Amino acid sequence: MNSEHGFNPAFNMATIRQAFTEAVERVRMPTPTRLRDLIRQIRAARTAAEERAVVNKECAYIRSTFREEDSVWRCRNIAKLLYIHMLGYPAHFGQLECLKLTASTRFTDKRIGYLGAMLLLDERQDVHLLITNCLKNDLNSSTQFVVGLALCTLGAIASPEMARDLASEVERLMKSPNTYIRKKATLCAFRVIRRVPELMEIFLPATRSLLSEKNHGILITGVTLITEMCENSSDTLMHFKKIVPNLVRILKSLILGGYSPEHDVSGVSDPFLQVKILRLLRILGHNDPDASEAMNDILAQVATNTETSKNVGNTILYETVLSIMDIRSEGGLRVLAVNILGRFLLNSDKNIRYVALNTLLRTVHADTSAVQRHRTTILECLKDPDVSIRRRAMELSFALINAQNIRTMTKELLLFLEKADAEFKAQCSSGMILAAERYSPNSRWHLDTQLSVLIAAGNYVRDDVVSSTIQLVSSSPVPEQTYITNRFWESLQVANHCEDKQPLLQVAVWAIGEYGDLFMYGANEDEFERPTESDLIAVYHKFLTSAQVSTTSKQYALVSLAKLSTRLQQCVEEIQALITSFGSHLNVDLQQRGVEFTQLFGSYKHLRPPLLEKMPAMQISRISSQNGESAGSFDDNSPDVIENGIEIGGSGAHPLIESNMNTMGDNTNILLDLLGSTDLTPGVSDLAMATDLSNAVHKKNTRNANNDATSNVAVSNNQDLLDLLDLDMTAPSTTSVMGVNLATDHGNVNNMMNLRGIDLNLGFGGIDTMPSSIPTNGDDLASMLGGLGAPNNAVLPMGADSLLGELNPTTTANNVTVPPQGPKLTALDKNGLLVQLVPVKGSDCMKIFMTTTNSSDNTLEQYLLKAAVQKSFELQMLPPSGSMLPPGGVITQEMRVVATSNAVLRMRLRIQYTLDGQQLVEQTEVSGFPDQQPSTE
Question: What is the pTM of this model?
Answer without folding.
Answer: 0.59
